[in-house]
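STRUCTURE:
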């Protein structure tokens, strides 16, 4: 009798756990459906508008045609080639900006604060300069080859990384610095154990801003003096009036931008594990 009772109790507990798991997964499903409902509605109205003639299909392709074009471009290997060229060009300027901006920002924010206060207005002015207006300048200085594109990416990436690194260093709690000094910590240990970990949230904020800016500016740069890349694909589709190809390249650019942002956010969560999570609304 006791064995049968225990068996029934175990079965009841397992059944309850299964029901709890089902409720948990169902809750996640409905939350995701609610959060992304606007995207599905957007594509549904877009498709219906083009099919019903409310939108001119000569200029706006329906989503089904766009996704079919994307699948065709990936199947032929064309899209992979253009994405690889774009990511390679963006990575060159972006990594150079991070390699220069982070150490320089740590130095200006941590050890040369007076020098940083003198330079801050100039840095903010250069950061505010429209990179598209400087496009002809980079072409005149470096030509229309790969160097000018890398220089443009470096220019647009260096300022968010540099300024956010400076801000991150300056936002480190002074109590941590005083405590480290009272324990006789060397400057190198102070940098590795106090300043750098404390400045990481600001550094990653600048890196994420620079990553998105690098990729989207490169697309504009590839429209001039390039024969490959997503920017060239957009320009070529526009020139030859290949509207589905134009929208397919635009969708791929948007998706890649989102993926890069998610990638940097994932790395930030792993590296800055102690940082409080952002509140959800």
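SEQUENCE:
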């Amino acid at each position: 009798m006791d064995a049968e009772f225990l068996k029934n109790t175990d079965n009841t507990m397992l059944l309850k756990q299964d029901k709890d798991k089902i409720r948990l997964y169902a809750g996640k499903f409905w939350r995701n459906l609610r959060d992304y409902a606007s995207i599905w509605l957007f594509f549904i109205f877009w498709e219906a508008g083009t099919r019903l003639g409310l939108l001119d299909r000569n200029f706006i392709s329906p989503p089904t045609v766009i996704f079919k074009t994307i699948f065709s471009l990936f199947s032929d290997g064309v899209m992979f080639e253009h994405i690889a060229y774009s990511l390679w060009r963006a990575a060159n300027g972006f990594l150079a900006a991070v390699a220069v901006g982070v150490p320089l920002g740590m130095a200006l924010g941590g050890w040369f604060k007076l020098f940083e206060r003198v330079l801050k207005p100039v840095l903010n002015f250069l950061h505010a300069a429209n990179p598209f207006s400087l496009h002809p300048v980079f072409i005149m200085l470096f030509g229309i080859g790969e160097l000018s594109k890398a220089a443009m990416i470096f220019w647009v990436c260096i300022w968010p990384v540099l300024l956010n690194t400076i801000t991150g260093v300056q936002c480190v709690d002074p109590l941590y610095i005083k405590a480290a000094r009272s324990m006789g910590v060397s400057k190198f240990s102070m940098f590795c154990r106090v300043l750098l970990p404390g400045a990481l949230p600001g550094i990653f904020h600048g890196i994420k801003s620079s990553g998105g800016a690098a990729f989207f500016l490169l697309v504009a740069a590839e429209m001039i003096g390039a024969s490959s890349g997503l920017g060239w694909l957009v320009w070529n589709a526009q020139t030859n009036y290949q509207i589905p190809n134009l929208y397919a390249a635009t969708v791929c650019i948007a998706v890649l931008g989102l993926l890069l942002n998610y990638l940097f956010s994932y790395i930030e969560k792993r590296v800055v594990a102690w940082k409080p999570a952002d509140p959800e609304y």
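REMARK: Residues 187-221 form the longest helix (35 residues).
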